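SEVERITY: medium
COMPONENT: batch folding queue
REPORTER: lab tech (J.R.)

DESCRIPTION
The queue accepted two submissions in a row. Attaching both inputs and their returned C-alpha cells so the on-call engineer can compare them side by side.

ATTACHMENT 1
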Amino acid sequence: MFKNPTQRFIEKLGRVWVRANIRNIKTREFCIIASNCTGTLPYRFLDIPYNTPTVNLLFLAPCYLKFIQNLEHYLNEPLVFYPTSKYPEGESIRNNFRHHYPIGTLDDIEVHFMHYQTAAEAKNKWDRRKKRVDPDNLIFAFTDKDLCTPALLEEFDSLPYPNKYVLTAKNWPQLKSTIQVPYFEDEQEIGDCYTHYGHLAHIDFVELISSVAKSNQTKQVPYAIPESVES
C-alpha cells in the first residue's frame, strides 16, 4: 500500500504512541496466546520474558481456533516437523517469505515458525516457553487474516474466554471481541501490524492487558498445565 509523506508521518507518531502506551502497562501478570506476531507486541516493548510459546510464528486461522479450544491437549502434543504445509495457502505464505522456515505440527494442526531458521531452534523455543504458560492470566489475540472467514470470527467471538480480541480490517459491530484497524478498512484483511504497529495507535493496550487482572477471579480457565510436564 502506497503511503504519502503525511501517512508516513502519522504512522511514525503512531509508533511513538504505541510504544509509550504499552510501556505504561503496570501488570506483568498476563500470558498472550497469539495467532501471529502482532499479538505479542506487549512483550516486545516491555522487554519481559516470553511466557508463551506463540512467539515469532503464525497459525493459519482454522488451526488457531482448534488450538485455543483445546489448549492443554495441543501443548502436551509433541512437535513434529513436515516438509510442506497441508494448506496450499500455507505453502504460498512460506514460498513468499524471505527464507524457507520450518513448519511444525501438533496432532492435527500446524504451526508456521516464520522467524526461526531451523526446526531444532523452533522446537527448543516452543518446548521451553510452553512450560511458562499461566492458565490464570490468558489473553487470546487473533487477526482476520491467514484463511480467516466470517464463520471463524463468529466462532472466536462466541468462545467463553473473557480476555480475547481480534484485529479486523472491516467493522463487525455484531461481534464484541473485534477491534477494527481503520488503516485497512478498504482491504479484506489487516496487513502487517507487527512491523507497522503505528496503525494500532487507536488501541489502549493498558486497558486491553489490564483487563486480565479485572476478570481472572471469575473467568472460566480453559487450560491447566499438568504436574507431569517437565519444569
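ATTACHMENT 2
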Amino acid sequence: MRILQVIKLKEKGFFGRELMHNVVVVTDEDGTTMVDTSLPENFDLLVRRLKEINLSLEDVSKIILTHSHPDHIGNAEEIRRTSHAKIYAHKEENFVPHDFNLSYEEVNKEMPVSREEFYHTLSRINQIKLEVPRIDVKLRGGEEISGFKVLHTPGHTPGHIALFDGENLVTGDAVRADGGLLPPLSFFNWNNEMALKSFSFLTSLPYKRVIPYHG
C-alpha cells in the first residue's frame, strides 16, 4: 500500500507574512520518501510531526529536493546522517550557496510590504545557516521514483522539478497557492518566462490534487 501524507510547517517573518511549508511524505513497500525538508529552524518540529504519523527519521530512505533554495534543502543532510537516505535532485540544479539580491521595489510591486519588513526578511534569508546537501542521484526528468514521475520544470531555478503520480501533483515552488493556483513570485525566479511556461504545463495536467510547497 502506498500512503501520501503532507506535513505542514511554517516560516514566520516572510515579508510580513507566515509562509506555509508543505513537506510531502510517501510510504510504500520500498520505504519512506520525503519531498523537500523545510528550514533548519523547523527540524525538531519536523521530527515531531513525523512521530505523529507513526514515522521517524530512521524510516526515510529517499529525499527528493525540488530545488536548491534553503527552505527546501535545510534539513536534508541532518536527515541523511540519521537515516542514510539517498538524496535526489535534478542534474541542472546549482547547490552552491548564494545571497538573494532583491530590491524593495520589485518585491513591493508583487507582494506589498513595508521597507522594515523587507529588509528584515532579506537579511534573515541571506543568513540562514545550513549544510549543503550532497546529491547522490542526479535526475534528468522522466524517472519513476516512489510512484511519481519526475517532471523537469525549469524557471524558478534551472533544475526545478515537480512530481506527478497521475492524481497527486507535487509542484515545489513552480506553483503556489494563494486564493487559487498562481505562478511563483517573479522576483525569486531564475527565468520568469520559463517559470510561466512550467506553471502552464503543470496546471494543464489531469491531476486530482495539487500540493504546492507554499500555500
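NOTES FROM REPORTER
The chain has a mean pLDDT of 97.
No errors were logged for either attachment.
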